[in-house]
Every structure is written in C-alpha cells, then in structure tokens.
Write a structure and sequence with these properties.
Chain lengths: ~90, ~325
C-alpha cells in the first residue's frame, strides 16, 4: 500500500484525514482509488481526464508532471503528496 | 583616471554576481558543483535584477513616471529590492506582505522607505497577491510591476543570470534554482539551454506547512502567468527541514551563509548530482542567510514544526 498526504483544502472531502492509504501501481490508479472512495474529489483532482491545473502530485518528492504524468509508477511503500499550486517567490 | 568606470550608484552594481565552485560539497570529483551567489546583489538578493528590469521596462514604456506610486505583493526580497530602486529613482512604494514574515524583512522594508500593508499570514503569498490586486483596482495612482506576470522578470534572468552562467562555464548539465515566480528558472533556463541544449532545468519547490496554504479550495490556487512548467525538466519538493539541513551543510563545508531557498537548492542539487557519473551542476543561491537570523528554526528540535507557520520563499 502507498500513502497519500491530503492537503488541508481537501480534508473535508475525505472525512478530515491528513493521510490515506491507497491502492494502485500508477498515479492514475491511485487517483481512481481515491475518487471511488471519495467521489467529491473527482472534480477537484481531474479535469477532462488530466490532472486539474491547480493540483500538483508528487511521488518520491518529485512532481509527476515532469515524469510520466498520470502514468507515473507508484511503488508499494511510496509516499504521494497532493498539493495545491501556490504562488511563491518572496 | 578610471573615474568614468566607477559605479554612479548602487543601481550600477546589480548583477555580475560571483560564481564559485563548491568542491567541498560535491559528491565526487567528476561532478563539479557551482553556486551563483545572488546574495551579493546591492539589496542582498537576486530580486535586485528583477526589480531593476521591471522598473526600467515600465519607465521606457511610459507606464511609470513621477507622481505614480509603486505597489507589489511580496514576502520580502522583491519588496526590499523595489524599495532600493524606488528610493534612488524617487518613487513611493507600498508592499503587501504576509503578516508572518520575519522581523528583519519588515524592518528592512521600512528602513528602505517602503510602506507596509499586511495580508493574513495564513493565506501565504496567494493572499498577498489577492490583496495587492484589490488595492491596485481601487486606486489608479498605483503602478504594480507584479513580478508574477511581468515578462521583464524572466528577461532579467535571460539577459543577466543565465547569460553570466553560460559565459562563465563551458559545460552545464544541470541548473537548479528555487521555484517562486518562476522567473529565474524560465529566463536563466532558456538562456542556458541555448548554450547547452542537453541541460536539465530543475526546480526546488517548497513544501509549505499546512497552516500557510490558506486556500479555501484548489480552485484558489495560483500558477504565475510567467511560469510554464512544461519547460522544467525536474521539479523536486523540498521540506523546510531539508532546506535548513542544506543551508547548514553549505555553511559548514563552504562557508556560504545562504537563505532558506538556497538551502533547498543545495539539497536538490546534491540529490541530482548523485544521479550523475560526471558533469556540471549549477545552483542559483537567491539570497544570504542574514534575513533569517531572528527565525526560531535554528535551535529547534523539530525544524519542520518550527517553520510551518511562515512562508519562507
């Protein structure tokens, strides 16, 4: 099982959990698992079958958009992080 | 008789920062690690380049002239850089600053002559952006350079930061910089890719504490208009604790006192350097550590917990 860290903005949709155990061997399968269990997440995470523009997903600390996107592999012990896109830059 | 070559003011000293080798930090002799010391700019950060380029462009376009007031959302460095520029060019400056930035930043902004308007700390940089956009809408005398959407920001790094690195080295395999507005990565990245087409452009991105995410929903998220993430090759999330560990390593091994984002860049650079058998990795270190000395993470047992309520870069 992999684990997903849920950002504060999405915790209401998952019953308040900060982290969830998930199944799936790719990011797409993990999101599928999340959306099946918490249907309210669907519109937040996906947009026309792609990752929604304001959502970043990290596997092993690396943004999956720079890897294989939704096809990025997820290992059994991997830690995924969901984050909203935020401004930075001092 | 070199009088004409002397700088006329601090504005002439923006850019042309030192590039040093970090041989004591490199994981192997075949991987050469370099650092561009942007803290050596006149107001202490890479944002001197951005502030200068944005105001030059606005004055040249006739958008900025005496009588107008400058306004910018900033958690520190851009505000300090704009304040230096504003003072020497004769403009007033108002900065919208998240309420939880370090005391040095606030004090520096005031000393340089900026007026401070606070935005809720828990809303982070996004909150400062929102508040500044509202202020600008309500008062036509404000001119907002707005680094997040101003093409002069990446252009400053294309013509300055990136060009300087490309001229100084005969090979660059990886460029690592902190991700904020995206200006450095877009501008310097493009310039270095022109010189070294195979270069990997890598972003070190902060993992914000829960309490500063401050978004009601993901739809409140913000991707700066100047940032095109498809032009990044790698994007690595760095925790506050990892950034501070990088900062300490940089200081212990090389004697360089960097800021929090510099620590994050070093952390990401070392991770990427481990993947190379040989090559050249260049780190852009955006500021020095001076503005962080009052922060309480230095002696904290749990660094992440000590840092989670503040926006660090």
């Amino acid at each position: 099982m992999a684990a997903v860290r849920i950002p504060p903005t999405l915790r209401a949709e998952v019953g308040g959990a900060r982290e969830l155990e998930v199944t799936g061997s790719t990011v797409a399968e993990v999101i599928d698992d999340l959306v099946t269990r918490f249907p309210a997440l669907a519109t937040q995470l996906l947009h026309d079958g792609e990752l929604a523009p304001f959502v970043n997903v990290y596997v092993g600390g690396e943004d999956v958009r720079m890897r294989d996107g939704l096809d990025t592999e997820v290992g059994a012990g991997d830690h995924l992080i969901l984050l909203p896109a935020m401004a930075g830059g001092c | 008789m070199a009088v004409s070559a002397l700088p006329a003011s601090l504005l002439d000293l923006v850019g042309s920062t030192p590039l040093i080798e970090l041989s004591r930090l490199s994981p192997s002799p075949a991987v050469r690690l370099y650092a561009k010391l942007e803290g050596q700019n006149p107001s202490g950060s890479i944002k001197d380049r951005v502030a200068q380029a944005m105001l030059d462009a606005a004055e040249a376009a006739g958008e900025l002239a005496p009588g107008r007031r400058l306004l910018e959302p900033t958690s520190g460095n851009t505000g300090i850089a704009l304040a230096l520029q504003a003072r020497l060019r004769g403009y007033e400056l108002t900065c919208v600053v998240p309420s939880n930035v370090t005391a040095e930043r606030r004090r520096l902004l005031r000393l340089y002559g900026a007026e401070i308007v606070e935005s809720p700390g828990e809303e982070g940089s996004n909150g400062a952006v929102r508040a500044a956009l509202q202020l600008a809408e309500g008062d036509a005398s404000y001119f907002m350079p707005f680094q997040y959407a101003n093409e002069a920001n990446p252009r400053a790094h294309y013509e300055g930061t990136g060009a300087e690195i490309a001229a100084a080295l005969d090979r660059v395999d990886v460029l690592v910089a902190g991700l904020g507005t995206g200006g450095t990565l877009m501008g310097a990245g493009e310039r270095i890719r022109e010189a070294f087409p195979e270069v990997v452009i890598a972003a070190a991105e902060p993992l914000p504490g829960d309490e500063v995410m401050g978004l009601r929903s993901l739809a409140d998220g913000y991707v700066p208009p100047i940032l095109d993430v498809s032009r990044l090759d790698r994007k690595l999330l760095v925790t506050n604790a990892e950034a501070v560990a990088g900062l300490r390593l940089l200081l212990e091994r090389e004697g360089v006192l960097g800021g929090v984002s510099s620590g994050a860049v070093v952390h990401a650079a070392l991770r990427l350097a481990e993947e190379l058998e040989e090559g050249v990795v260049v780190c852009v270190l955006a500021d020095g550590g001076w503005k962080y000395l009052s922060a309480d993470f230095w002696d904290a047992g749990d660094v992440d917990a000590a840092m989670e309520k503040t926006v660090w870069w």
